Q: What sequence folds into this?
């Protein structure tokens, strides 16, 4: 039977009590009692020694456990670093292979440029991507996005006099004429008519001013902090409060538009037959010349003002890869060549 220190002490006291109260002076009995006391003390010392050793053993085990935990954490950290290094090497090898496939970036004259993969967050090339400036009629991509998000594209719009009171380019809408939202949306993206943009804005929000508020609210929703819109068409302001954006932020809007089948179906059209209520039909040629010169191009929107220069947002797809190119502040002779060269380059890998 295992005795604790307390039990041994109690037993010793019992023997002492027995001696005192018995009054026994038997030497043999006293010797036996003394022996038992010594035995109890020895056991007590042994138990104390064993408890001390157990405590030391526990401390050693805990120290070993902590050392093992530290070593395991070290191994996990090394494994993580090794995995990251392997991924980094894979990425570098992939980038090297891509560079070999694409070749050098084309020489371009545009001042503000960005190329993105709309299926990811990857930026393939950029030049002054965060420089603020005018973006001309590429503004109409945001106008189209808000119109499509509102839905009901077959709803009839009645043209008001205020819709027709804007600077060129105009299609020639007249007050009282009726069109579907889809008709006007198609015309504004293909031919970039400013009176149509104004009619769509007023129909969408009740007034151009309210629509502009929605445009800037949409920018905030998309996390755009370097964009400011003052009208639905992108012309300079008459009050000095000029609109601006950046190549990077315009690419975010283009990416949002690219997710909308209604917009993608329109921006790839090379022409559109627009029918007036009078029965007259006029064929609108898409202002995006790259649609005709590159089979892989399927959109999106052109623009020009003195401040913005010649602009083009061009989208394209080839071999399962999709890219969007934003070219701003280019020249009339270079914008098409630059956009097509960049799109072709980006689609090689």
A:
């Amino acid at each position: 039977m295992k005795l604790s220190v307390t039990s041994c002490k109690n037993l010793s006291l019992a023997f002492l009590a027995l001696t005192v109260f018995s009054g026994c002076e038997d030497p043999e009995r006293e010797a036996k009692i003394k022996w038992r006391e010594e035995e109890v003390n020895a056991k007590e010392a042994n138990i104390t020694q064993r408890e001390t050793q157990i405590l030391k053993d526990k401390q050693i085990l805990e120290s070993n456990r902590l050392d093992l935990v530290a070593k395991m954490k070290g191994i996990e950290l090394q494994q993580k670093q090794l995995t990251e290094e392997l991924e980094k090497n894979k990425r570098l090898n992939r980038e090297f292979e891509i560079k070999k496939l694409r070749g050098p970036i084309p020489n371009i004259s545009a001042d503000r440029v960005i190329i993105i993969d709309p299926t990811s967050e990857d930026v393939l090339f950029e030049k002054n991507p965060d420089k603020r400036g005018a973006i001309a009629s590429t503004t109409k991509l945001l106008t189209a996005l808000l119109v499509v998000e509102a839905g009901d594209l077959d709803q009839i719009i009645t043209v008001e006099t205020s819709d027709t009171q804007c600077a060129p380019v105009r299609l020639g809408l007249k007050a009282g004429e009726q069109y579907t939202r889809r008709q006007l949306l198609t015309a504004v993206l293909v031919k970039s008519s400013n009176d149509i943009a104004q009619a769509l804005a007023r129909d969408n929000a009740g007034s151009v001013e309210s629509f502009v508020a929605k445009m800037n609210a949409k920018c905030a929703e998309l996390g755009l902090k370097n964009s400011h819109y003052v009208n639905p068409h992108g012309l300079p302001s008459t009050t000095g409060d000029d609109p601006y954006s950046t190549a990077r932020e315009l690419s975010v809007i283009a990416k949002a538009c690219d997710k909308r089948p209604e917009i993608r179906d329109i921006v790839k059209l090379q022409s559109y037959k627009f029918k007036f209520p009078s029965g007259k039909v006029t064929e609108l040629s898409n202002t995006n010349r790259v649609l005709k010169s590159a089979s892989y191009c399927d959109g999106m929107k052109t623009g020009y003002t003195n401040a913005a220069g010649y602009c083009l947002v061009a989208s394209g797809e080839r071999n399962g890869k999709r890219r969007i190119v934003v070219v701003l502040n280019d020249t009339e002779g270079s914008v098409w060549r630059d956009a097509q060269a960049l799109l072709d380059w980006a689609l090689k890998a």
User: Anything to note?
Assistant: The longest strand covers residues 309-318. The domain at 111-346 is CATH 3.40.710.10 (Beta-lactamase). Confidence is low (pLDDT under 50) at residues 11-24. Residues 309 and 329 are 4 Å apart (CA to CA).
